[in-house]
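Researcher: Before we compare anything, I want clean individual predictions. No alignment, no superposition, just each chain on its own. First chain goes here; please echo the sequence and then give the structure tokens.
Model: Echoing the first chain and its structure:
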Amino acid sequence: MKRNVTAVALALLTLAASAKQGVDPEMDKFINDLMGRMTLKERIGQLNLGGVGTPKVVGSAKGLDKAVKEGLVSSIGGFDPVAAEDVQRFAEDSMRVFIPMITGLDVVHGYYTTFPIPLGSSSSWNLGLLEESARVAAREATAFGINWTFAPMVDISRDPRWGRVAEGAGEDPYLGSLVAQAMVRGYQGDDLSDGETIMACTKHLVLYGASEAGRDYNTVSMDDVTAYNYFLPTYKAAFDAGAGSGMTSFNVVNGVPTTGNRKVMTELLRDQWGFDGFIVSDANAIAEMIEHGVGGPQEVAEMAINAGTDMDMSASLYVACLEKSVAEGRVGEEVINTACRRVLEAKYKLGLLKNPWLYYKNKDKRKEIVLSPGNLDVARRLARESVVLLKNSDKVLPLKPVKKIAVVGPMGQERAELLGCWSYGMSADTMSTFVEALAREVGPDTEVVYSQGSNWTEQPAIYKQGGEHPSDSLLMQAVKDVADADLIIATVGEPAVWSGEAHNLTNPDLAEAQKKLLYAMKETGKPVVVALFSGRPLVIEDIDKDFSTILQAWHGGTMAAEALADILTGKEAPSGKLTSTWPRNVGQIPLYYNALRTGRPYSGFWATTKYIDSTNDPLYPFGYGLSYNEYKYDNLRADKLQAKGEGDRIRVTVDVTNLGSMPGKEIVQLYVNDPVAKISRPVMELKDFAKIELAPGETRQVSFDVTPDKLKYYDSELKYGWDAGEFNIFVGPDSRKVEKLAVKWDK
């Protein structure tokens, strides 16, 4: 039986009176009044994210205009800012109870000004610069009416086969948590309603990065101890930083689709963590629960809303099914009201309910806001600090003055490919190619020439370039073109489309066509610099063995070319360090630094965890990255070796000296190991770091405070605490090259 609007209003006011403490009373009153004027159908409509620039709401037979007029669309995608503005205007003119739309888009690593892919940006370990990049992205996106970003992606991943590893901060929960918080602060600022900030959306909830075999959307099976200690902290950190929304993941976890998992969406996020924002499904994820085998449209819609998923992105199953569910008693009206309230609270905090056109206040300033000199400077600095020097054994870098440099490889003359996945290409026409940037940087006394040398691959099923010469003919031409060059820079790796959503690889190796190019260049006898561009760690053990000079440039964004030229020429020494372990071969995957100890460690005949055809060690460990300088770590010490109780601390100090001839930045890393605990603990865990600047010859004392918070973990009963006893403290430039200090902590 339907209730009338007055009865609904009374029920809602009663609900508001019992609302949790800490709610803004002005907001509460405003939303009570608004919801009191809405029908059940309109409240369900606030739970639907529709499309823009399409003839219908995705998954629905209703036209978009009709759906908006009836109050069945709450939020829209902002791929087309003109269409988004038109929908907002149509809504204002036609809705019975006008409620402005949220306009959302995946502003993952920039909008017009594009920054390095997140995996690359995280390699900077520069939290302040990461926050600044998110601030720039928010300022640019809001000028086009976008006020909600489907970012940051905070999924921990240990598998470089997974295409979406490009979108996260790597494998470590501590660093990943700090990166997540920096991005949330950058997007949201101090005031979500100032018109130049953007609501963050923590994704993907949960454990999405642990999909089996590195296949996107695939199943995840994981015990709670592993989840709580390694994979869940980044999501919580983003919510603790104030992220206003969260997004469900496509995958099944332990047999239950996460979009319909009440244990995750309500018991974990809300009851345990206290998250009070709204949760949106990933695109069509509610409908895709049908394919998971848990019910038809009616059943999966009910499962998702009862689990705590507040908004349906793209499937339109809530507007199609939930009125019936309420009428037949399978979904309580209070569940609809709670979800609707969360969405309206987000709109209130964004300032939309008081000013629907707030996010168009800078419409006339778009040209001066996007790609501004200040924004490009942030992009260049972050791209520079993201470059990781993997090998420089012959000291070819920084480049010495020469008469002629030959650039070869498929990335040398690209622009848009430098932007990486989840970019919109809006800066591509303004960008430099690497050849152009390098030529400017080395000056007129050095000639820079380019020869493609190979296609990305000769496997058209993977990537069809169309119309180009076969790689063999390109290779023969390149050999001729480099004949009188003094130095060769090979720009190889992956095009942007090889990573990102649904772009997984069984073997993240360098394509054979590009390998042939590298070895042909090596046979010339000239120095070869290998510049890698990719959205993931690559399997390059053979390249590491046979080439002296290797850099990882990722997909570096709008200023990628200039940044790499800066590094190669020594304008700045490289300072990036890896946030994902690089395996020697695909058979080692998953490989990560913070593994548990085994009963038979990797030594001796009975060491059953070893391979017979490969070492266990990675090619490049977590935290690894070289500089043009050598940094000496010396005199690791502590102000005391024994502490007691929660309020105590041990200050660990190390002397770091720049032995090189250039100013440089070094990332000093602190790891902790708990050798005797209630459960088996990792060989080491990152617990602190400092990125410091050192002049040539300068020594700095770098200190870290170790407190019980750095010793805590979730035990087998999911109790969070720490054990009294001995602990090992490690400090060094990466997770492999460390000095050890033993301390004791009593309760």
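Researcher: Okay. Second chain, same rules.
Model: Second chain and its structure:
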Amino acid sequence: MSNKQHINQNTDVDERMTALMTNSNAIKVIAQAVEGTIGPKGLDTMLVDQFGDVVVTNDGVTILGMMDVNHPAARMLIKIAKAQQEEIGDGTTTATIMAGELVSEGVAQVSRGVPVAKVLEGLHIGIKKAQEVLKEKTKEVTTSDSPILKEVALVAGRGHDDIADLVIKAAALMGKEKLADPSFKLADIIRAQEGADNKVISGVILDREPLNKEMPKRIENVKVLVIDDALEPEEIDDEALGTEAGFTRYMELREEFVENVRKIPELGINLVLVDRGVDDIAEEILTDAEVMVLQRVANKELRQAAEHTGAKLIKRTGLKKSKAELQKYIGHSAEVYLDEKIKHVYLLGGTGKAQATILVGASTEEVVGERERIAKDAASAVQAAAKGGIVAGGGAVELAIARGVEEARKEVRGMAVFGVDCVIAALKKPFSQIVLNAGFNPLEKLGDVTASQVEMANDSLGIDCESGEVVDMCSLGVYDPALVKKYALKAAGEVAEAILRIDTIIKKKPSKESESVDKDYYE
């Protein structure tokens, strides 16, 4: 081999390691940003923007979403963490910490001379085995009012007993079948409001007030019309309006619109929810008829109201239908009223599908956002536990899974064992970080718990973060949803594989769009 060939090979290796180290360091920075928040002794993070506005939070996905991040590898990790949040609604901190450790260990193995392909092979084996062991250790939750769900809510809700109670009450109202519905998210029914009282209502809360003060503020025996459109006459373009025929058509449409609006009170409808704006004529007619109208209702709330009352969404052109046909679109509920304290409308006792809304009170505007995040985490964890079962929390189950992966390692041949080792290290990381955040020595406590789990044949043993003693996490009420662990493992593995596969970083040439922008700018 010539010296030139030798130099080129070394250069290739150097470039590959440079790419790996650069990406690994970026991932490590992101993991370090959230690892201090995990566990009962985890601390908060303060995020400050360029205007000096401050958000103080313990929520991993909020921290990741608000960080000013430019590195593509870091963005990749944040994107996958957000995907976990969308899917499960919890566990992003665990996923991020495990991903950081997997990448760090994987790069360390490659730097020692282990081929990337072998590391990846071992990662696949280790994560597959970890998922299998996790499934074996999962306990099913049989009912939506199981006492264990309260413990899950407390852990995910960072010990806020009032929020946990609200979430459990709402989960019981919805039932296990509804919680298992992939299209339903318990976290979506949460509202946080300054000055509000904590409550769960069997109905929908709409973040709107009646269109004017002359409209009724409380109605019983409600007939509801839900308009997924503007309550305004059909439009004519300005050019056509400038002609005699166009103006005539404009007047005809307004007359037709008035006739259609008058059908609403004639049908006994006394609540109208509108997606967009309401024309002045319609407002006057409906006010005189003592109909409550809410305009610009959020589409999500509009659909919740329709589902709860049994109403069918209708467009403004649908009002041309006969009264007999319009009857099919009307929903019903027992009561609707304006809460003047928080400026929201409550829609209760619908005849459609059961709906619950959790209203979380906050003492000041500054803590509204964090109270809502805590409640959403608790709700997501409870729903995940109801759907996929529970495991011991506090990092205990990950240590038990790590031992299962260690057993599988004995069957692995060749250098793939080093990839399996990366998975084992990643599984131990959440426990170690929880213990470190509590002020104890992670290595010492890791050894104590591992030995105790084996000796006592109890995979639920972990560390009491108050005393530092080895205790049964289940006896302390520390449970985690199994689905959170499942998706955290999956997300961590995807990040690690994506990062380890990159051996070169090349800056792209400007896209045509950016070139066009630059050209316009300089011209």
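Researcher: What stands out in the second chain?
Model: The domain at 3-139+390-500 is CATH 1.10.560.10 (GROEL; domain 1). Additionally, The first helix runs from residue 3 to 35.
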